[in-house]
Structure formats: structure tokens, C-alpha cells
């Protein structure tokens, strides 16, 4: 009788052959001589068609296109050298690598884990602490909550055990996602970039399973960070006469249970959440997000540093009025300041484009004239055309920070 199915995903032909043999519909195909199979140079011939194959270690031969994601991931770092059961062809023993997926009790959970594995950021986002202007209080709190427990685990035990949940809240465009990218770059942890689409499914019961699988994956790859962007879309306030669907309540309950379960494990798993509407979050979620950090609108020093970096003064040209820009951009977010700089930089380009359009001559790319410098009047036009987008609710963020926020005394 055919072997029992392995934990890896089978192709349709393997699955059909196994059950045909099991129920007596067909006989198991006789295994050919290794000498004959060796003549095919790693190719299997079936119905006159050849295809590249790879053994999964238990005798079954499978197409590489049918391999599960985690199998391909495990074979990426192996190179082209032939190996079998962790032993290289030259006889040297190879240290077995950590599998991409932990052992699951069912193939369904493994399939969900494979889909979530696509949200793991393996490459560095290339955002450092120094590239974020201002926000010194938020950066210090994040280093204290995430970086220090990884660097000095000896001190973070008992009562000083690391915080498991961190909330970044503040007006839109102030740098919450940039801070999360800096955590992914600087902390060298496995970073899960999770949005509502990652854990919400149209199938009944799958959303809760996705949340459970997510935290199992995070514990398997510890130390790891789960970044939940716009968390208010996932776990807003429950009850209070709201028209809430049953599936939404189950998803929120599972997320709360899994976050409470993190405190019962020794693995370093951090939940980093970001939101523009912290007052919409459920009270139970606020309790689990122990560190709540306000990411405010940039201070004058931070705004000046942003303008100097985005609009550097050209050598030999008139210095741009940075003090005027700082004074006129009170209440602007970091995103608004970038738009002001972009609008100012567009003014000399518009003048140049107008000249080129008037001449109506075809000019080769090498002969195109250079864009002129930014003038003082360009700054005035940019400030007039760009308005702040997040200053109206700043007092509400300050009140929430006074009631629930975490701060470091200077």
C-alpha cells in the first residue's frame, strides 16, 4: 500500500494515486531500478512529457511548482549542491536549518500559515532612527520596550519583563509607520507586517484561525514583532448597542486571547500597533497594549531639520528662508511638510516646462536645460497652496495622551 501522506502538500496526481491504491482501485506502480532512474538525469518521464522533479525526503517525487512555500524557502539557502537528510554529497554533516513553519495539527492550519508567511518582511526596510527627524520621546520609548530587552535580556526578568504590547497613536502623517520600519531595520527581529486583509477571511471561522496561526508563527520565529497598522479597523469598541457582526466579535475575542497568551510564554514576541483613532479602540485592547506612545506633530526644531534635508540650499545660491518656513508651518504634520517642499520644488520646473512648450522644438534628452533654483516667491506659493491636514484634532490626541499615554521624564 502507498505510504501515508506526509505533512507537506501533495500534488493532485500524488493525492489521487494514494487513494486509488488505498481503496484497491489500482496497484502501486513498481519502483524502477536506481540505475534506470539515474539515466534520466533528474527528470521523470510521464505520458511522454518530462518535468523537473525533487524528492521531499521520504521517497515521493514532486514537481517544484507543486512544492509548498516553506519547502521552497528551506531549499533557498542550500544552493545547487546535492544533499539528503541533512548530509551533503561530500560527506560533511550540515546543521539542520530552522523550518519556516512550526508543526501544525492539520493541513488547513499549515495552509493558513503559508499565506501569512508572505507578510513576513525578510529584507530590511532601510529606515534608521537617525533618518526620522524629531520624535525623540517616541524613539526612546521604543528602544526601551523593544531593543533593550533583546540586547540585555538579563535585566528584563520578573517584574521587569518586557512589554508585550505597544501602541503608536497620533495624527496622520506624523511618522508612526516610519517608526515601525525603524524597529524592523534596527532590531533584527522577524517582522510581520499585518493589515486587516491579512487576518480577515470570508470563510466562517478562518479569521480566528488566522489570528491563532499568526501568533504561533511569531513564537516560532522569536524574537519577532507583529506590526498591526490601523488597528482600529480590526478591534474597535465592542457592544454598546453597535450593529456588530458575530464574525467580527469572534475575531476580536481571539486577538485579545492570543495577546493575553503572550504573557505566559518566554519567547520575545512584541505587538506593535498604530492608529489615528485611539479613542475608538476597545478598552480590553488598551489594557493589553501596555505602552501607549503619542507621535505628535513635529516641533519647530524637527520641522527645520526636515526643511534643510528636503530643500537643501544650492552652493552659490541665495539661502532659503528656513525660519520663515518653520514659522508658517505650525500645525503641519511630517507628511504636510513634505508636500510643501514638493510644491516649492515644482515651481522652477513649471517655469522650465512652460518655456519648452512655447518653443515647440524637439530637444534631445542630453540637451535639455537644467532646472533653476528655488526662489523666495516659490516658497510663498507653496505655503499658500498647501494646507495642514491633521491640526484640528491635535487637542484630542493631547487629552488621550494625558489620560492613557506613556511618557519619559526629561
Automatic annotation (TrEMBL):
UniProt keyword terms in alphabetical order: ATP-binding, Cytoplasm, Cytoskeleton, Isomerase, Microtubule, Nucleotide-binding
GO-annotated molecular function: ATP binding; ATP hydrolysis activity; isomerase activity
Biased composition (Low complexity): 47-57
InterPro entries with a match to the protein in the record: AAA+_ATPase, AAA_lid_3, ATPase_AAA_core, MT-severing_AAA_ATPase, P-loop_NTPase
Positions of region (Disordered): 26-57
GO cellular component: microtubule; spindle pole
Pfam families named among the record's database cross-references: AAA, AAA_lid_3
Protein name: AAA+ ATPase domain-containing protein
Annotated organism of origin: Nyssa sinensis
Classification lineage: Eukaryota, Viridiplantae, Streptophyta, Embryophyta, Tracheophyta
Amino acid at each position: 500500500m502507498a505510504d501515508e501522506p506526509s505533512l507537506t502538500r501533495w500534488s493532485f496526481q500524488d493525492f489521487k494515486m494514494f487513494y486509488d491504491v488505498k481503496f484497491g482501485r489500482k496497484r502501486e506502480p513498481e519502483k524502477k531500478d536506481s540505475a534506470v532512474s539515474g539515466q534520466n538525469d533528474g527528470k521523470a518521464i510521464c505520458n511522454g512529457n518530462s518535468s523537473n522533479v525533487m524528492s521531499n525526503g521520504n521517497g515521493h517525487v514532486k514537481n517544484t511548482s507543486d512544492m509548498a512555500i516553506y519547502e521552497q524557502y528551506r531549499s533557498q539557502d542550500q544552493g545547487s549542491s546535492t544533499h539528503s537528510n541533512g548530509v551533503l554529497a561530500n560527506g560533511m554533516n550540515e546543521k539542520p536549518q530552522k523550518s519556516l513553519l512550526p508543526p501544525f495539527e492539520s493541513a488547513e492550519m499549515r495552509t493558513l500559515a503559508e499565506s501569512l508567511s508572505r507578510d513576513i518582511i525578510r529584507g530590511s526596510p532601510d529606515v534608521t532612527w537617525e533618518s526620522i527627524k524629531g520624535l525623540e520621546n517616541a524613539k526612546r520609548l521604543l528602544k526601551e520596550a523593544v531593543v533593550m530587552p533583546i540586547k540585555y535580556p538579563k535585566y528584563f526578568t520578573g517584574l521587569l519583563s518586557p512589554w508585550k504590547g505597544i501602541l503608536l497613536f497620533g495624527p496622520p502623517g506624523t511618522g508612526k509607520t516610519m517608526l515601525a520600519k525603524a524597529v524592523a531595520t534596527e532590531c533584527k527581529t522577524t517582522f510581520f507586517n499585518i493589515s486587516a486583509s491579512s487576518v480577515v477571511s470570508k470563510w466562517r471561522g478562518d479569521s480566528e484561525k488566522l489570528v491563532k496561526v499568526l501568533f504561533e508563527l511569531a513564537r516560532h520565529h522569536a524574537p519577532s514583532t507583529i506590526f498591526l497598522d490601523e488597528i482600529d479597523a480590526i478591534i474597535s469598541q465592542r457592544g454598546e448597542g453597535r450593529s456588530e457582526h458575530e464574525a467580527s466579535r469572534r475575531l476580536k475575542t481571539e486577538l485579545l486571547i492570543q495577546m493575553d497568551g503572550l504573557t505566559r510564554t518566554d519567547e520575545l514576541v512584541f505587538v506593535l500597533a498604530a492608529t489615528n483613532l485611539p479613542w475608538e479602540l476597545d478598552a480590553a485592547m488598551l489594557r493589553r497594549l501596555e505602552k501607549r506612545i503619542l507621535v505628535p506633530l513635529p516641533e519647530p526644531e524637527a520641522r527645520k531639520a526636515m526643511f534643510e534635508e528636503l530643500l537643501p540650499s544650492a552652493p552659490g545660491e541665495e539661502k532659503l528662508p528656513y525660519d520663515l518656513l518653520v514659522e508658517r508651518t505650525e500645525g503641519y504634520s511630517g507628511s504636510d511638510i513634505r508636500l510643501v517642499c514638493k510644491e516649492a520644488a515644482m515651481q522652477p520646473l513649471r517655469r522650465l516646462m512652460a518655456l519648452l512648450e512655447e518653443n515647440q522644438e524637439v530637444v534631445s534628452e542630453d540637451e535639455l536645460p537644467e532646472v533653476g533654483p528655488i526662489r523666495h516667491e516659490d516658497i510663498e506659493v507653496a505655503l499658500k497652496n498647501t494646507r495642514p491636514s491633521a491640526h484640528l484634532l491635535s487637542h484630542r490626541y493631547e487629552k488621550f495622551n494625558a489620560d492613557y499615554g506613556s511618557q519619559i521624564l526629561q
